[in-house]
Amino acid sequence: MKVCVSSLLPLFFLFLSPALADPDLLQDLCVADLNSTAKVNGFPCKPAAAVNETDFFFAGLANPGATNNTMGSLVTGANVEKIPGLNTLGVSLSRIDYAPGGLNPPHTHPRATEMVFVLYGTLDVGFITTANKLISKTISQGEIFVFPRGLVHFQRNSGKVPAAVIAAFNSQLPGTQSIAATLFGSTPSVPDAVLTKAFQVGTKEVEKIKSRLAPKK
Ligand SMILES: *[C@@H]1O[C@H](CO)[C@@H](O)[C@H](O)[C@H]1NC(C)=O
Ligand SMILES: *[C@@H]1O[C@H](CO)[C@@H](O)[C@H](O)[C@H]1NC(C)=O
Ligand SMILES: *[C@@H]1O[C@H](CO)[C@@H](O)[C@H](O)[C@H]1NC(C)=O
User: Fold this and answer.
1) How many domains in the chain?
2) How far apart are CA 207 and CA 189, in angstroms?
3) pLDDT in tens, 105-155
4) What is the pTM assigned to this prediction?
5) 88 and 192 fall within a common domain
């Protein structure tokens, strides 16, 4: 049978479409064997006989995380690394806790759109589009805000009491790149000449930021 190439094009773009997040599943479940050394897109499946309810359970978001760190915030993931049963399902959650004034610093999730639901407190949140427009809002208990996939975003507790959100992602493992830590705290480190030119500052300023953001040894 002759198949017209142009008739296949929409299908081709469907599979490549950036609108899709994690790939669709091909079986009921595929509980991650997190110890496997095999490299696949995701994790290999555990034998069905070894699967039970604990693979689909996690109690780690029940309580506030400790926010007594430099940023005054803590992200607790509930992704495939914590819940092996999420493997191939394309969803995950996090809980984020914020001390008063606490910041979840500007970062991106390369593999997921995020929506946050405020459990309590008040947050200034925002993301920046590729056209460099800041879309921001103050959100409170019971309210939701969306951060489109891949765009740089942040949340800051603008209240005088602790705040917390539940974040939902359309990926089993969204991945996080924190902008400041990525550029100033990588190993090996990004050359000063790259950062001085990019940020239009001197070596001294770059070294100062690097010393603050260096990975803790
Ligand atoms: C991975 O290996 C560790 C240590 O051998 C073991 O305790 C754990 O149960 C294993 N995890 C899985 C998901 O098989
Ligand atoms: C479920 O399987 C794990 C090993 O993967 C085991 O440690 C645990 O005891 C099992 N839980 C139940 C309720 O059978
Ligand atoms: C944060 O507080 C907890 C509990 O009070 C404590 O165990 C921990 O050492 C503190 N961490 C820092 C970085 O101060």
Assistant:
1) 2
2) 11
3) 999 999 999 999 999 999 999 999 999 999 999 999 999 999 999 999 999
4) 0.86
5) no
